[in-house]
Amino acid sequence: MLNSENTQKKIWADPRFAEMVSKRTRFAILLSLVVLVPYYSFMMMSALAPTFFATTISENSVITIGWPIAALIVIGAWLLTAVYIRRANGEFDAMNEEILREARK
């Protein structure tokens, strides 16, 4: 299978492998920041300015502004996870298969 040292050396030496790792890492970091910055901003605002999120949406509403914002953060994280999975299963898996095919020769 792929356990031979020769195959591993071919994979590590392939410039496409380094490109794939670099692309995947940059994409993962970007998506992580897009998820974590709003999340931690929400947490900091909750701790430092709790009255902001306690404001009701309308005069007669019992729903505060914090609930929809929190829901958007959670739903956004789910959607970005789906974006990552789609790209990983498409572009990154295709690159991986191509690199493995060449290394097996």
* Structural class estimated from helices and strands: mainly alpha
Largest sheet: none
Low-confidence stretches: none
What is the β-strand count? 0
- Give the fraction of residues assigned to helices: over 70%
Shape: elongated
Please, what is the average pLDDT?
Answer: 92
In DSSP terms, counting alpha (H) and pi (I) runs of 4 or more, how many helices?
4
Strand content: under 5%
* CA gyration radius, whole angstroms: 22 Å
SSE string: HHHH
Oligomer: single chain
Distance between the termini: 12 Å
What secondary-structure arrangement, pairings included, does this model have?
Blueprint: H1 5-13, H2 15-48, H3 50-54, H4 66-104
Helix pairs in contact: 1-4, 2-4
Can you offer a commentary on this structure?
- With 105 residues, this protein is mostly helical.
- It has a domain at 36-47 and 63-105.
- The chain has helices spanning 5-13, 15-48, 50-54, 66-104.
- Helix 1 (5-13) packs across helix 4 (66-104) and helix 2 (15-48) packs antiparallel against helix 4.
- The radius of gyration is 22 Å and the shape is elongated.
- 0% of the residues are buried.
Throw out a few tags for this protein:
105 residues, elongated
